[in-house]
Design brief:
The protein has helices at about 5-15, 70-80, 100-110; strands at about 30-35, 45-50, 50-55, 85-95, 115-125, 145-150. The protein is of the alpha/beta class and about 150 residues long.
Length: about 150
């Protein structure tokens, strides 16, 4: 499905996350909700071309170790399984994340030595339309997945 906000996705990936993906990868952008599974919180998955896998999560309550390492491992495994170039985990919140240092430490522990996995902290208002924080989803449904193309 054509998506009028493709420029905002490209701006988010290039400007906010600092990714240097070539413009041609933005011809295919897929946004999908992934429901919470086995203690892992729900995420918004953004696939840019067949190169970049981005998971967006709102920080859930509780101990960071209970979810950040699991998200890092899951994202890296998906990246490797599908042959993507990079994985980026984006923690989006309304206010600065008080435990950002702890989250970064646990993420780095989970991805030690992996130069193709990155952690980002962004304010929710920096997210492009269509990439809502998962905690605002009422019920993730397959029909909410969509392909975004130029």
């Amino acid at each position: 499905m054509n998506y009028s906000g493709h420029g905002s996705i490209e701006h988010f990936v290039h400007g906010t996350l600092g990714c240097r993906c070539p413009e041609e990868v933005f011809r295919s952008v897929v946004i999908s909700p992934l429901p919470a599974v086995a203690g892992r919180p729900a995420v918004a998955q953004l696939l840019v071309g067949s190169r970049l896998l981005i998971h967006v999560v709102a920080p859930p309550a509780g101990d960071a170790r209970d979810w950040i390492e699991q998200l890092a491992s899951h994202g890296r495994a998906a990246r490797d399984r599908h042959g993507y170039k990079r994985f980026r985990l984006v923690v989006a919140s309304r206010e600065p994340v008080a435990s950002a240092g702890e989250l970064k430490e646990h993420f780095e522990r989970a991805v030690v030595g992996d130069e193709r996995a990155h952690l980002h902290f962004v304010a929710r208002h920096q997210l492009p339309a269509g990439l809502e924080p998962p905690d605002e989803w009422v019920q993730p449904r397959p029909e909410r997945s969509r392909t975004v193309a130029k």
